[in-house]
Amino acid sequence: MARRRTIAHEVRATGTALHAGVPVTMILSPAQSGRGIVFRRADLDVSIPARYDRVSETRLGTVIGEGSAKVGVVEHLMAAAAGLEIDDLTVSLDGPEPPILDGDALSYLELLESAGMAEQEARRQAVKVLKPVTVESGDARASLLPAAELSFAYELSFPVIGEQYFEFAFSRAGFKAQIAPARTFGFLKELEMLNQMNMALGASLANTLALDDSGVVNRETQRFADEFVRHKILDAIGDMALAGSPLIARFEGKKSGHATNNALLRALFSDPANYAIQEL
């Protein structure tokens, strides 16, 4: 019988927000059993549950909101929490996004590990997918399929990068070694346009794999030959964690992103026949 988990004590980190480009202090605190993961904008005194139905934007990151208050780029931290099977957590921020840190999930995972883990009294429950659910948008597709265990498969195709495919059967150790270190990536030719839109202002060669027409610019920081598809699985794990409970399913993605991932969860929960709640 698995019990819900939170962290044992408070930890914090300060860094730069990926899109806003401003300094942000993040405080991770233990949370009451059953509360789930909640982001708190301390500067606005607003709390936002980390759930798929609170997603308000999916362009270059998953954004959750409550009224006019928003928290952007939550997927990396959500992936780290899912990778450690943390159910209850309070994330307090004095700005619009968690600090990007190294542009991966490993930075958050190691911070959470330093806080220690604490088991709660309540039992863990999962969402078991009973029927295939698929969403498509153009040539992007994402599916949740019935399965005995949680797993992820992703097929990527980008200019310069080419085609990459990766499968991952979820485990805590596997996530830390194979997925969490994979860093976010972007194309240098798009950076100026994004900056003019007040996005990617905190992106740098220290936290992002940068690509030009010849390939990876900061290749010395690359951790895997197929780091790009691994990061897409990292994003999918973070986005699927917005289900509010762990999934028992197989995720399959092809050229999909945050928008398709969120649409997939909305499609899953739109019909109670698609899933069942199961104790772990």
Describe, in plain words, how this protein is organized in 3D.
This protein is 22% helix and 37% strand. By secondary structure, the chain is α+β, with helices and mostly antiparallel strands. The model has no long low-confidence stretch (mean pLDDT 96). Strand 6 (55-57) and strand 7 (63-66) form a beta hairpin. It folds into 2 domains: 3-124, lpxc deacetylase, domain 1 (Ribosomal Protein S5, domain 2), CATH 3.30.230; 126-279, lpxc deacetylase, domain 2 (lpxc deacetylase, domain 1).
| Major sheet attributes | 5 strands, mixed
Q: What does the overall shape look like?
A: globular
What is the CA–CA distance across the termini?
A: 6 Å
**Residue runs with pLDDT of under 50 for 5 or more positions:** none
Total of DSSP H or I helical runs spanning 4+ residues: 6
Strand order of the largest sheet: 2-3-9-4-5
CATH superfamily of the largest domain: lpxc deacetylase, domain 2
If you compute it from the alpha carbons, what radius of gyration comes out, rounded to the nearest whole angstrom? 18 Å
Number of strands: 21
Q: What do the pLDDT scores average to? A: 96
- The helix content, as a percent range, equals 10-25%
- Please write the CATH class name of the largest domain: Alpha Beta
Structural class: alpha+beta
In the CATH hierarchy, the third-tier topology of the largest domain is known as: lpxc deacetylase, domain 1
User: What is the ordering of alpha helices and beta strands?
Assistant: EEEEEEEEHEHEEEEEEHEHEEHEEHE
Q: In what range is the share of β-strand residues?
A: 35-45%
Give the total of domains: 2
Q: Specify the CATH architecture of the largest domain.
A: 2-Layer Sandwich
